Malate dehydrogenase (Hebeloma cylindrosporum), 340 residues
Amino acid sequence: MVKAVVLGAAGGIGQPLALLLKANPLVTELGLFDIVNTPGVAADLSHISTPAKVEGYLPPDDGLKKALKGADIVVIPAGVPRKPGMTRDDLFKINAGIVKDLATGIATTAPKAFILVISNPVNSTVPIVAEVFKKHGVFDPKRLFGVTTLDVVRASTFVAEIIGDLSLSKDVVVPVVGGHSGVTIVPLLSQSSHPLPSSLSQESHAALVNRIQFGGDEVVKAKNGAGSATLSMAYAGAEFAAKVLRALNGEKGIVAPSYVSVAADASGSAALTKELGQELAFFSSNVELGTEGVAKIIPLGKITEGEQTLIKAALPELAKNIETGVNFVSEAYKTEEPRL
Ligand SMILES: NC(=O)c1ccc[n+]([C@@H]2O[C@H](COP(=O)([O-])OP(=O)(O)OC[C@H]3O[C@@H](n4cnc5c(N)ncnc54)[C@H](O)[C@@H]3O)[C@@H](O)[C@H]2O)c1
Ligand SMILES: O=C(O)C[C@H](O)C(=O)O
């Protein structure tokens, strides 16, 4: 029996993500929480002939607690998306508070659940969840994941496009490390399961890296004020959730990149820190998943000089983003006691 919960379930990501989770046979219960419209979304999904029992909750009458009760996996796409001209960091002001409140609900109701954070800026919202959990004395770094899968999905698609065969895209695997915004997104194209054509010019290679790093902007621009990636994100979020669920179900050897706390695996992160030349509290790297969450953080391995330069550019930005998240929670708790 597995209960999955979506917080922000009526949104542009939340609805298709809830649909894909409802379609996952490993999910037997699906809790949907949002500040609007969840009863309708839940009624609609509940007619689909798959095992999951669906319930929708709103804030009144302890809706968040009811949605979270007994949760094994909680996915968070709650919060505002970008408009053209904005960076993900511009979302921090609104989304930090939303994520903090939802994290408080999880810490007090389902502290053992796996938490998959989609809300931007991921580089900072994941540290917010960690800090809230620490304040409540329930932080388990193995169970907290920043969802960076969309970067991996984009890399697979764009590499397959360059190879000239989109049918390969589901098989192309490119590790994408670092974080989830602009220069912190570092595709390790040299480790692609499908090598790039040797005829690819340096300029085209650089353009591919840039497209993976700024793929989100392409969608924000095309949507022209109506938000950011929702459908591709729902697909990516469901893919990552499916891997976590398979690992929870006992399947071995499942690997996926995710933005995790380095405290999740001391020896893996020590090797990673050596490669990076500095320690960061959070970093996205390939992670082996197990029944307890992160089983292993897999270091970068062999990378090119160009990739090393990209990592160097990512590190200061990531450090700043992490600090922003951590400071936000310590400031908040100066005026507010954790609700234990
Ligand atoms: N990690 C990624 O790769 C990635 C990709 C795409 C989008 N995102 C981020 O995901 C977030 C959501 O994007 P979207 O397009 O679905 O936005 P959206 O506005 O369509 O949906 C957000 C939903 O969150 C709900 N919400 C707001 N406050 C809430 C609260 N306190 N509790 C519960 N629900 C609440 C809203 O009612 C809305 O239904 C944004 O921050 C966006 O930047 C992340
Ligand atoms: O670009 C955004 O703001 C949304 C998301 O992070 C993305 O990568 O598409």
Summary: Residues 7-8, 10-14, 33-36, 77-82, 91, 95, 98, 101-102, 118-120, 122, 147, 150, 180, 227-230, 233 surround nicotinamide-adenine-dinucleotide (ligand 1) (CB under 6 Å). Residues 42 and 132 are 29 Å apart (CA to CA).
